[in-house]
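Dataset card, provenance and construction

Sequences and ligand SMILES were collected as paired inputs. For each pair, a complete structure of the chain with the small molecule in place was predicted and serialized as structure tokens. The example below shows a pair involving zinc ion. Curators did not alter the output after generation; any descriptive sentences attached to a record were derived from the structure itself.
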Amino acid sequence: MKKTLRTIMMVLIIVSLSACAMEESGDKEPINSSSPSERQSQPDTKNKPDDDFNEKQDSEDQSPDNTQNGDQTSVDENQNQTGEQNNSNPSNQENNDSSGSANAAPKDVVDDHTSVEAVINKQRQLPSGYKPSDLTVPEVPFYFEQFLPKKQMREEAASHLENLFSAASKQGLDLVAASGYRSYERQKQIYQSNVEAYGEERANQFSAQPGHSEHQTGLAMDVTVAQVSFKLVQEFGNTDEGDWLANHAHNYGFIIRYPKGKEDITGYNYEPWHLRYVGKEAATEIYNHKQTLEEYFGLVPEE
Ligand SMILES: [Zn+2]
């Protein structure tokens, strides 16, 4: 009898230990396949979706095939010690500006990477050491309980996100936050583990180089909803929540950063879940003109 009890205890301990290990490695090594069938074979995905799966779905961690070429090369070329060169070289930006915008006179691009209007994309990167000084956890529902750095946003963005969530909630919409701030180091780990697992060439097809993720600004938040199993998938755009966001997020200073049909301009696939705080004025103008942040600043790639 005692022996049986001990055996049961041992089994329980082993099970709980391996569950912990899974969560740990899940957060640190997002190199698993994004295939839904593989994901389903993992335990505990019903209540708590796999972080890695979600983050891999966010193409800020990826480089969609169709936008792959050229960009990665120029990233390598621009990858100086700090990465600040790219942000602080006015002549480069003026060249980009000359391509112009269809709808409105483009604004002067903001070179201060701490500005809420900072443009971070495949051409423009953040300094490697940059971490916003005012990160905080917005009081909104998350799909996971525990504290993780990705719960954070910069203060101004966080308080506006709270307003957005509360307005959505009054409409009976149940948004859930999934992923906000992501450090340069974390992005580097993600990228490097992908290089180790798949080789550099293949990793470059879906994993962004560190410094180029908008999540490092602390101004982005990926959101989702139970209807799509808390995944970051394009179907989110067809939900009531996704539809409401597309038409109301600007009232709270947010834009859908990677809209449908603008893939060539943003460099990313359509991401109805990726909210970027830019302030109400810019967000409203971008919404009214059906623009992207690039177009707003006249940073449209030359054809
Ligand atoms: Zn995102």
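Derived descriptions for this record:
Strands lie at 135-136, 153-154, 176-179, 220-224, 254-258, 271-277.
The longest strand covers residues 271-277.
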